[in-house]
Amino acid sequence: MTYVDAPSTERPPAAARRRWTAARVTGLLLMALWALLGLSIVYMLVAGYDPEKIARYGPRILNGIWVTLHLVVLSILLGALISIPVAIGRLSHNPIIGGIAFGYSYFFRGTPLLAQTFLVYYGAGQFTAALKAVGLWMFFRDAYFCAVLTFSLNTAAYQAEILAGAIRAVPSGQWQAADSLGLRPFTTMFKIILPQALITALRPYGNEVILMIKASAIASIITVLDLMGQTRYAFSKTYDLQIYIWAAVIYLITVEVLRRLWEMMERRLTRHLRR
Amino acid sequence: MANYMELLSFGDSGWGDELASGVLVTVTLALATLPLGLLIGFLIAVAKNSTEPLLRNAAHVYTTIFRGLPELLTLFLIYYGGQMAMSALWRLLFGHAFEVNSYLAGMIALALVFSSYASEVFLSAFRGITLGQYEGAYALGLSRSRTMLLVILPQLVRLALPGLSNLWLNLLKDTSLVSIIGLTDLLRNTNIAVGVTKQAFFFFFVACSLYLMMSIISSFGLRRVSAWAERGQGRR
């Protein structure tokens, strides 16, 4: 019987190497494609840098960003105000009130925002005499005000659905418990139900803000000079595609920053729910 | 009232036929975009579901871009950018300019937007399918592609359908944007009618009602599709 006491010459198995699977090759190719696209865009922006154009259209674009921002903020806030009675209507057991709220929300969610904007802006022109008589013509003559009005009504319908859905999602036991403690309905709503509902509603609200930023580009069609409007103006003067790319970069950064901020806020507000 | 009815009549004096042909363009555009968007969206979702980080990241870049851009801007980028790129290419190859079809540009732009949202819907549907389904299929000796086709996809359809229904309704509304690049869809024809008749409120209200009608009809159709997809689930 032989007894071998030599140390093994075998090496330990090499760490498993990542194999070149089809998925990996595809992923690499696609990433290379994105990188190429990104680099060519950067190259285009750098090579096409034109101080004269920047001087002429830069301030206009900045002004456009400002217009977009207050258009969105104003619409969201007004929409939030309008959404409260609509949400109450959606939750109401009265078939008439419920029906009206449902009709409102169905109309504004079922038709394109562009068509609604045209309806308000151009449609008001049909009633010039009547609007002048009640002194509202100044309001409807201005494309900006028409855009704010349409966007507020539109986002109110979506926000009402978010709010109503979130309130419905609070378990009915919460209502019953508050009732049995003898709390008034008002107190129950504001101290018990809404704080729980708003946490559910947080994420959809964030989505709605982002959708509104994107939708606000539609205002440019009715001659509001927001970011998109100024971009269209500059493009019509120069036929330089760079301007659209700049606008795309600005929109992307805005949306992405907002999304991250919202995520941070959500994490902070729901920290008591995490284990 | 009779006046309004005449405005909507078919024929030379009314705008009924123009609006009807607009509805047709809107519906066919949405229907043509749907399969393209679903296919790209599904592939992107598969990529996001991959174990390969490179592939996942490539898919996430796609979604970030096309969900972050306003639909209108995507449309303009495709339309004008495509016009410029294709013209340069055509001039190089054939020596003359190239006219980008606004229908095709609209279809591509809408498909990009639709697919980026659809990929998220498909992804969350994928998460709803337990690992046991894959393991069971492999244990039965099904290949990967047949597992996907015969076992996963039928369940995926059921889970993804509510989200996809919403996206279809959004797509139907987003088609209105192509009117701006000159496609004679419902909204464009309405604009023309308004330009001639000066009855802005009336015609835009009719257009809104037609859009509403389209979404109501879609909702009924989608309810039937959903009943079909749920047929294996038993009564609840």
TrEMBL record, chain A:
It is found in: Cell inner membrane; Cell membrane. Residues 65-262 form the ABC transmembrane type-1 domain. GO terms for cellular component: ATP-binding cassette (ABC) transporter complex. GO terms for molecular function: transmembrane transporter activity. InterPro entries: AA_ABC_transptr_permease_3TM (IPR010065), ArtM/GltK/GlnP/TcyL/YhdX-like (IPR043429), MetI-like (IPR000515), MetI-like_sf (IPR035906). Its main location: membrane. One of its GO terms (biological process) is amino acid transport. It holds the Pfam family BPD_transp_1. The chain crosses the membrane at residues 27-49, 61-84, 91-107, 119-140, 209-229, 241-262. It is a multi-pass membrane protein. Signal peptide: none annotated. Keywords: Cell inner membrane, Cell membrane, Membrane, Transmembrane, Transmembrane helix, Transport. Belongs to the binding-protein-dependent transport system permease family. HisMQ subfamily. This is Amino acid ABC transporter permease. It comes from Pleomorphomonas carboxyditropha.
UniProtKB/TrEMBL annotation, chain B:
Residues 23-214 form the ABC transmembrane type-1 domain. SUPFAM superfamilies: MetI-like. GO terms for cellular component: ATP-binding cassette (ABC) transporter complex. Keywords: Cell inner membrane, Cell membrane, Membrane, Transmembrane, Transmembrane helix, Transport. GO terms for molecular function: transmembrane transporter activity. The chain crosses the membrane at residues 20-47, 102-126, 147-169, 200-222. It is found in: Cell inner membrane; Cell membrane. It is a multi-pass membrane protein. It comes from the Bacteria. Belongs to the binding-protein-dependent transport system permease family. HisMQ subfamily. This is ABC transporter permease. It comes from Pleomorphomonas carboxyditropha.
